[in-house]
Amino acid sequence: MQRFLSLAVMITTWAIAAALVHSRLLPSPLTVGATTLAEIRSGELPFQMACTLGRVIGSFAIAMLLGSTMGYAMGRLKPLDRFADSWLVVLINMPALVIIIFAYIWIGLNETAAILAVAINKLPNVIVVMREGARALDPEIDEMARAFQFSRIKRIRHVVIPQLAPYLAASSRSGLSIVWKIVLVVELLGRPNGVGFVLGSAFSLFDMAKILSYAICFIVLMLVIESLVVQPLERRANRWRRRLA
Amino acid sequence: MLELRIDAKSYRSAEGTPIEVVRDLKLQLEAGSFGALIGPSGCGKTTILKIAAGLDTDFRGEVRRPESGRLGMVFQEPRLLAWRTVDQNIRLALPPERAGVDLTDLIETLGLGAHLALYPGELSLGLARRVAIARAFAVDPDFLLLDEPFVSLDEATADRLRGELIALTERTKATTLLVTHDLPEAVQLADRLFFLCDRPTRIVLEQELPPRYTRSKDTVTSISDEMRALAVQAVAGAHGN
Questions:
Q1: Could you give phi then psi for residue A52, rounded to 5 degrees?
Q2: A60 burial type by CB count under 10 A (0-12 exposed, 13-18 middle, 19+ buried)
Q3: Is the pLDDT of residue A245 over 50?
Q4: Is the dihedral of CA A217, A54, A88, A185 positive or negative?
Q5: Any CB–CB contact under 8 A between A146 and chain B?
């Protein structure tokens, strides 16, 4: 109820402000709504969103897979951690834009470069969180698994992953938002389609209605993914914990 | 047959100084028999058990475990997977060739039938310990290691579980090594007692007990008193040297 109310207040404020200013630089909610409908009907908006979503999924998957493996390895192996830690510090502090430019220059203005650039931007964050997770693994449970000769697959599935689940959830949550923000920048700089590209061209035309309608649609899409995919997965992984209460 | 020879075992303390835990320990246990290690708290009993289990290989000496050597182990804490149900906890420990085996008898013996769908966090300590015992027996071990499995349980529950343990070891004929500081418990359960002294620990006295069926509650008490006297003498002798 409160959420609904706050949303209503926000839209009303926006409508009043737009009516007072009366400029095409601040279109009213109705104008934005009409633009959105028109874009959806023409098939333009679904197409551009699909392009962006594809890149988000691709780079998110790469970053999570590589980041978890590397973070786990660094958390478990002290020498590797000491060796790779300085690289990690460099990567964490590298501006997203620099990585994107490097990728486009070295790999070319193509899809591989775009997806890789986003994945590398997200990577250090996953590594740091998963390294903490690997360090926190319970050595007593590990000993039990060795005593009962758990196979490697059994250990990963039933001993390691459940203990890493909260860390996986945390890094994928923060990851999804980082990834989609950076994907838009990558598209703006070097792709001929996607929401970032559209925002770029709308910016050069000062088309605020289009910018707002694409931005809002994309935020809504990400919220839907968060509540329909990420949250249910998290609830499932924490089933055993909730019943303790 | 279990043969354990530990010439030296030490570990580094938090300050970095080495602490010698075990020195010149020799232990032999016949296949199918039940041995008990008895010693003061903190003397290194758990360390010896971990070496016997093959979980700790950082020592000088040699371990020879029973042939085929399927190991069942009950740790001092239940060590269950908090994120798996009781049933899954027991079944996950099974070797692949026993994957589909019927465990109803074992589960009923240990009174776990009503709790299979629960998570370990929902169990009392007594129940969690029973799950840990069930897990160790479910693998049908040739070699069973128990690290103070009944500590911090109320006496009635502990006594019932001891009875169940005797029944299970007699049925499975597992070579069993129990660590305890409770002498009457050891006398009630074991065929052979090994007394340990303080750190660096070694065996100061080894005693064979009369067959288990001849031991009633009263004889357990009298044997315990007799053993305690012998152990005190042996420890005094060891310190005299």
A1: -65, -45
A2: buried
A3: no
A4: negative
A5: yes
Residues B156, B23 contacting (CB under 8 angstroms)? no
- The fold adopted by the segment(s) A45-238 is MetI-like fold (1.10.3720)
Q: Using the beta-carbon criterion (under 8 Å), do A244 and B84 form an inter-chain contact?
A: no
Which residue in this structure is represented by tokens 């098939």?
Answer: A43
Stated as kind and residue range, the H or E segment containing A152 is helix A152-154
Q: Which residues pair with B6 in a beta bridge?
A: B25, B61
pLDDT digits (tens, 9 = 90+) for A43-60: 999 999 999 999 999 999
Checking phi first, is residue A210 left (phi over 0); if not, alpha (psi -120 to 50) or beta? alpha
Contacts of B75 in chain A (CB under 8 A): 140, 143-144
Would you call B55 and A143 a contact, using CB atoms and an 8 Å cutoff?
yes
| Domain ranges, ordered by start, for chain A | 45-238
Q: At what angle do helices A44-76 and A111-135 cross, to 10 degrees?
A: 40
Interface touch B84/A151, C-beta < 8 Å: no
Which of B50, B70, B79, B129 to probe the A interface (max A CBs under 10 A)?
Answer: B79
The CA R_g of chain B, rounded to the nearest whole Å, is 18
Residue of A149, A150, A160 best to disrupt the B interface, most CBs of B under 10 A: A149
CB nearest A154 (choices: B77, B92, B139): B92
Helix (H) or strand (E) segment spanning residue A47: helix A44-76
Q: Which residues in chain B are contacts of A153 at CB distance < 8 A?
A: none
Q: Count CB neighbours of A141 within 10 A.
A: 19
Cβ neighbours of A244 in B, within 8 Å:
119, 121-122
A102-123 confidence digits (pLDDT tens): 999 999 999 999 999 999 999 9
Can you list the domains of chain B with their CATH numbers?
Answer: 2-64+143-154+165-240 (3.40.50.300), 78-140 (no CATH)
- Please state, in angstroms and rounded to a whole number, the distance separating the CA atoms of residues B195 and B208: 12
For A39, A72, A116, A237, B25, the CA distances from B82, given in Å and listed in that order, are 51, 21, 38, 12, 36
- To 10 degrees, what angle do helices B155-172 and B125-138 make? 0
A224-238 per-position pLDDT tens digit: 888 888 888 888 777
Here the ipTM equals: 0.85
The C-alpha R_g of chain A, in whole angstroms, comes to 22
Q: How far is CA B90 from the centre of its chain?
A: 18
